[in-house]
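During the first year of the project, the team set up a workflow for recording each protein of interest as an amino acid sequence followed immediately by a discrete structure-token representation. This format lets reviewers and collaborators read both layers of information side by side without switching files. As required by the reporting guidelines, we include two representative entries from the current panel. The first entry is reproduced here exactly as it appears in our internal archive.
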Amino acid sequence: MSVRKALVFSKDEIRALKESWYVLWGDKTNNGIKMLMKLFKMHPESRAFYKEFKDLREQDMPANKRFRGLALSYMYKLTEYIDAVDDPDTLEDLMVTTCKAHHRRGLGPKHFKWMGSVMTSMVKETMKSTYLTELHKTSWTKLMDALVVVATDVQKTLKEESLDKIQIPEMTGVWRSPHNSPRF
């Protein structure tokens, strides 16, 4: 899927994202904490990327100020995406910035896919079946899949750029194989 196509949302999808985000944002700190804890539960290998929490016991996470700060920063980043969901150019720019920053830390599309599964689960849990529609779920899946598409594109671009920086020394003179060198 092209990046451009991944970033275009219908009016109904935008409404569903904003409605569900309103519910999640209502308790942003606690929902951010739940989201990070869910990431560690659903994808235990993700914890390796958070060295400062490596020895932190699960029951101590909610009270840890650095953990709470990280959880809140995740929520603010998602708020940026929700605020820009009706503007594909801005949404792309925000996602590219996120993906580049994470790429430098060794995180790529697979890791954003993990976060997508976490977000879909969070929306289901937080909104409960009373308010949750299929459109809410599919809209979140689409948003998080768009992030994976952007991450894949960023990763490809950064690899190509790093290959372009590799300089191969220019050969000077004439190279002769042992088979065509002059005999003395």
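The second entry, processed by the same pipeline in the following quarter, appears below.
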Amino acid sequence: MPERGCTIFSLMVLSVLEVGLGASSISLGVVGIVGIRSARKLQLGDASSIWSGVCFLICGLCGMLCAKKRSGLIMIMFSACCICGLISGILNFQFVRVVAKRPDALRPLHLAIMVLACLGIAVSILFTWLTCRLASSEQQRMYLERELSLHHSHEMSDKEFADRSERAASITQMSLNGKSSPPL
């Protein structure tokens, strides 16, 4: 399955990107709070980029874990993190958009925060799509593995049945010849 390897590689690359976006968003949020504290009192939405960055960071780390271990529970946890990252990115964008309308706003900083939020949202959407592809691939792999296992067990039971039938026929032949039958 070459496409499965491509999906895992894409997931790992996007996870590293998401971790970088999360760290950048956190650092810009801290810079924004430090710059705002000197000018005015903190208000609602000033720290939204920090929370969004934390969600992106956790989402990226879960993506790395999902690329390494592809169990059902980890994929479900990763999907939940993707949804949280998506929601936090949207809320961050909306809060920063409102804050940027203030007269004392740091426009270049807010623009950078909104760009990071948009990139985080896009990566979260791609994560969701890749997770669905990876889950489908894993389901198909497990199905084929189970089918192979069942086929192998049927072959073994058929072989055992043939061996027992052969032994029973030889025992019957020996008893007809007048010889004593050997123990099983």
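For the second entry, the following points were noted during internal review. The chain has a mean pLDDT of 81. The chain has one domain: 2-141. Both points are flagged for discussion at the upcoming steering committee meeting.
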